[in-house]
Specification:
With about 200 residues, the chain is an all-alpha fold. The protein has 10 helices and no strands. Among the domains are: about 60 residues; about 55 residues, no CATH class. It is elongated, with a radius of gyration of 35 Å. InterPro entries: Homeodomain-like_sf.
Length: about 200
């Protein structure tokens, strides 16, 4: 039978239990409590039963704990697919969104997800679904804000001149017709509703 790996000398069972209580990660707490049992003299098999796992996992936890300390017992990212957008691409996308479209050039008054997906594909050769791009954009703090559409040939000076030359009665808001004080119907009497049987 192999000799079990020794645990670090700079921790003890009380310290590991204190760290387990304060940990925000359930997996780390479970692993710390299992290792605290080993510090107290429990066998690796008993520690595995306590943690609800097998002895090989306990051995892996001991190796990680000896190498990295309690931080080594936090759940790790399982790998998965690499992010398609690099930080540089993400910064360029954010700048592109903040610049906004030019209606005469791009043909839209605000960026749609399909426009941004096309821009990413043309610029960087990265293909993302609209759903995934929407998640990334929301994570970066952007929200869908739609302003009133404005035609690119609209003349603001002509609008100002029109406002200044218009009669004040046209610019005034509010009803010109007095409130009608007549009301139809009389007061409702209590008990006049049909009784249901």
């Amino acid at each position: 039978m192999a000799i079990p790996l020794a645990l670090r000398d700079d921790y003890d069972s009380l310290e590991l239990r204190r760290l387990a209580r304060r940990s925000r990660h359930a997996g780390q707490s479970r692993r710390l409590l299992a290792l605290a049992g080993i510090y107290d003299g429990a066998s690796r098999g008993a520690a595995a039963l306590l943690a609800g796992t097998d002895r090989q996992s306990i051995r892996d936890w001991v190796v990680r704990f000896n190498a990295e300390g309690p931080e080594g017992l936090v759940d790790r990212h399982g790998g998965g697919q690499k992010a398609r957008l690099t930080p540089e691409m993400l910064a360029a996308l954010k700048a592109h969104i903040e610049e906004g479209p030019i209606p005469a050039v791009h043909g839209v008054v605000r960026w749609r997800l399909c426009d941004l997906c096309g821009w990413l594909h043309e610029t960087y050769g990265v293909t993302l679904s609209e759903t995934r791009l929407g998640q990334i954009i929301r994570r970066e703090g952007f929200r869908l804000l739609t302003a009133r559409a404005r035609h690119y040939r609209q003349d603001t000076q002509a609008q100002d001149i029109f406002k200044k030359s218009s009669p004040m009665s046209l610019l005034r808001s509010g009803p010109d017709i007095p409130d009608n004080t007549l009301k139809s119907g009389g007061p409702t009497r209590h008990g006049s509703a049909r009784k249901q049987s």
